[in-house]
Every structure is written in structure tokens, then in C-alpha cells.
Specification:
There is one protein chain. The chain is mostly helical. The chain has a single domain, classed as Na+/H+ antiporter like fold, CATH 1.20.1530. The chain is about 75% helix and about 0% strand. The protein has 17 helices and no strands. Helix 15 runs antiparallel to helix 16. The termini are far apart. Belongs to the monovalent cation:proton antiporter 2 (CPA2) transporter (TC 2.A.37) family.
Length: about 425
């Protein structure tokens, strides 16, 4: 048996922590250090580590637990209140990047400029690059907002809600484009599955909540069985979302967290899941993003396209989501926060890109620019979030943080 994975884990945990502390000293979120650790350790720089099946599995478990914790920390009443706004923000955050990505690829993806080896028509290829830019990796923003203590703000709730809806809209957009290139994909079936997931989550949520709430009320405080059952529920929801409904497993984990959040043991469970996430799973997940990066050789035209792709990726999300937030009567500083919080593409865009290459929708020459865009947007998001959250009302207890009556009541109890 090969025990090298033990050494891999030790190196990842040590380097992510050291670089996390280093980035914190220069007033940046520690998650940036974890991302840089994976990039430095991976094939893009020193090649000390490479992505393995074990690291991939642990990383997937890490993002599931991260989103489960985010669900437990979310006020479901506040999330429901921002549901309409989240949909508008997500819709604008999909349409604007889609248009920007299509326009940029339309200028470059043509004979005599950049020769693509993809089998699909140029129109579908250009649309697909726009589809890649619609993705949002909420896990990066969630970790940063948790670190800043801003996950429970109105902006944080809007980012969470919009990112979940963005994921659904991204699946629909991807399905429409892939169905044009692959006749075996049915748009109607995919839409029915997505609708089915929300019905499934609602029914399971009611049943599990009532049973769990009743059981918790009569159980002793702090029993470990609560943690195990909550984790089992998280994993089952994640599996069902991905396997039966074609929805991202992190969406299932987030809804599982929302359901558990309403039980009286939520705070107890949250502390224990935060520990395992901080100790092992989150560092491996963030480092794994950097380990995925393998940069191919690129000529000057591809380099220019890469730079413009990063700019378009950042600007279109800020404009699109910020405009959507403005329509929903958010204040200017909140619009900026929401726009910045949706920038990160992370592993979501890489998954979409790999799917496109398999179906002949993305030429291999464009994979390098996509990887560069993913890495830079993933790193720049936590940095910009920290900067942008410094701006706004300078109050001892921000009104935004006490937006719901739940938090107001909690504050009164503590005083």
C-alpha cells in the first residue's frame, strides 16, 4: 500500500497554514494563502505535489462541509426575504458575463486570429466561453465572509442566495448549449430534475426537521450522535442532489445546513463542523484548486486574450450583480459588496470547461486562458472582499449585521 498521501497531507496542511499566516500579516484573508500554497506546490510552479484521487475526494468533502456550515450559519427567514432579490442578482450576474464572454471570444475565436480545434460551430464555441464566465464559486466567498465575520450580513445573505440560484441558472445554460452539440441531452428533463430537487428538499426538510427537532428536545446536551447524524444527513443530501437531480452536491449540502440550522443543537453542531473543516478539509480543498493548474505554452495573442478574459470576468460580475442589487434597492456600498462577492469562478468554471472540451465546445487552445482566469478571480475575490467591506457605515454595531429580528433578539439577550 502506498502511504505517500500522508506526506502529501502533511505538506498541504503545513504550507496552507504558513502562507495563510503570511497573508494575514499583510492584511489579506488567510484563504488567499491556502490558494497560493496549492499553486506553489503544484505543477504550475515547483511541482512538489500533484492532484491525486485521494486529494480530489478529500477536497470534495471539504467543500461539502464548508457549504453545510454556511447553511447552518444562514438565517433562513432572512434568506427567504432576500429570495426575490437573489434571483434578480443571479439573473443579471449570468446574463452580463455571458454577453461579455461571447463578445470577447467573438473577436478572437476566428480564423487568422486564434485557430480553435473544437468540433462545434464558432457560434456555439463563443456562447460556451460566455457560459464559463457565468459560473460562481460561492465557497471562496463563504470562507472569506466567515473569516471577516460578515456572512450573516444582508450582503452576505444576498451573495449566498444569488450564488445558489446562479448555480442553477448555470446548469440550465450549460444544458441548453450542450444539447445543441449533443442530441442525447434533453433540456426538459434537466429542468424537471432541477424542479424536482427543490420539491425533494422541501419535503425532506419538513420531515427531517420535525423528527430531528423532536429528538433533540428530549436528548441530552452535547451527545456526539447528533454530530454523526447531522453529517450523515449532509452527505445523503449532497449525494441525492448530484446523483438523482443533476444539481451540484454543494447545493444539497447547503440545504441540509439550512434545515439543521433551525434545531436547538445548531450552535453545538456548528462548532464541531467548523473544527474539522478548519483542521483538515478546507485547507485541502483550497490547496487542490491550485494543484489543478497546469499552464500550457501560449503565444502573444493567447496571452492578450487571457488578460482580457480576466478583466471581463471581473468587471461583468461586478456590473451584472451590482446592477441587479441596485434594482432591488440595495444601497451602493451593498451593491459593490455583492458584485465583488460573486467574482470567483473557482472549480465550477474548470468543471464546465472540461465538460465543454469533451463535447467539442471548447478548443484546447482556450483552456490555458480559462485556467488563468479561474486562478486570478479566485485569488482576487477574497482580497477585494476585505477591501470593499471596510467601506460603508462606520457604526459600532452595523445595522446591516442586525438586519433580521432574530439577530436583534439575540443581541438583546446578550446585553
Amino acid at each position: 500500500m502506498d502511504y505517500s498521501y500522508l506526506l502529501d497531507l502533511a505538506i498541504i496542511l503545513l504550507c496552507t497554514k504558513l502562507l495563510g499566516l503570511a497573508t494575514r500579516r499583510v492584511q489579506m484573508p488567510q484563504v488567499v494563502g491556502a490558494l497560493l500554497a496549492g499553486l506553489i506546490l503544484g505543477p504550475a510552479v515547483f511541482g512538489i505535489l500533484e492532484e491525486t484521487a485521494f486529494i480530489t475526494s478529500v477536497a470534495e468533502l471539504g467543500v461539502i462541509v464548508l457549504m453545510f456550515c454556511a447553511g447552518m450559519e444562514t438565517d433562513i427567514n432572512e434568506l427567504k426575504a432576500s429570495g426575490k432579490a437573489s434571483f434578480v442578482i443571479a439573473m443579471c450576474g449570468v446574463l452580463v458575463p455571458l454577453a461579455g464572454g461571447f463578445a470577447l471570444s467573438y473577436l478572437f475565436n476566428r480564423p487568422g486570429v486564434i485557430e480553435s480545434d473544437a468540433a462545434a460551430s464558432l457560434m456555439l464555441q463563443n456562447i460556451f466561453i460566455g457560459i464559463i464566465l457565468t459560473a460562481t464559486s460561492v465557497s471562496i466567498s463563504v470562507e472569506t465572509l466567515k473569516e471577516l465575520g460578515k456572512l450573516k450580513t444582508r450582503s452576505g445573505n444576498a451573495i449566498l442566495g444569488a450564488a445558489i440560484i446562479d448555480d442553477i441558472l448555470g446548469i440550465i445554460g450549460l444544458t441548453i448549449v450542450t444539447s445543441m452539440a449533443d442530441s442525447s441531452v434533453s433540456i426538459a428533463v434537466v429542468l424537471l430534475k432541477i424542479l424536482g430537487f427543490f420539491v425533494f428538499a422541501a419535503v425532506v426538510g419538513v420531515v427531517v426537521y420535525r423528527w430531528y427537532h423532536s429528538w433533540v428536545d428530549h436528548a441530552e446536551k452535547g451527545l456526539r450522535r447528533h454530530v454523526i447524524l447531522a453529517f450523515v444527513f449532509c452527505l445523503v443530501m449532497s449525494y441525492c442532489a448530484e446523483e438523482f437531480f443533476g444539481v451540484a452536491d454543494i447545493t444539497g449540502a447547503f440545504f441540509a445546513g439550512l434545515i439543521i440550522a433551525n434545531t436547538e443543537k445548531a450552535e453545538y453542531l456548528q462548532e464541531r463542523f467548523n473544527t474539522i473543516s478548519y483542521l483538515l478539509l478546507s485547507p485541502v480543498f483550497f490547496a487542490s484548486i491550485g494543484l489543478k493548474v497546469v499552464l500550457p505554452k501560449m503565444d502573444s495573442t493567447i496571452v492578450i486574450f487571457s488578460v482580457l478574459l480576466v478583466i471581463v470576468a471581473v468587471v461583468t460580475k461586478i456590473i451584472g450583480c451590482g446592477f441587479g442589487a441596485k434594482i432591488c434597492h440595495y444601497k451602493n456600498y451593498q451593491c459593490r459588496r455583492i458584485g465583488v462577492g460573486m467574482i470567483s469562478r473557482g472549480e465550477v468554471a474548470l468543471i464546465v470547461a472540461n465538460k465543454g472540451m469533451a463535447l467539442g465546445l471548447l478548443g484546447s487552445v482556450f483552456l490555458g486562458p480559462v485556467i488563468i482566469m479561474v486562478v486570478l478571480t479566485t485569488i482576487v475575490t477574497p482580497v477585494l472582499l476585505k477591501i470593499i467591506f471596510r467601506k460603508g457605515p462606520d457604526l459600532p454595531v452595523p445595522k446591516e449585521q442586525e438586519i433580521s429580528s432574530f439577530y436583534e433578539n439575540m443581541g438583546e439577550k446578550k446585553q
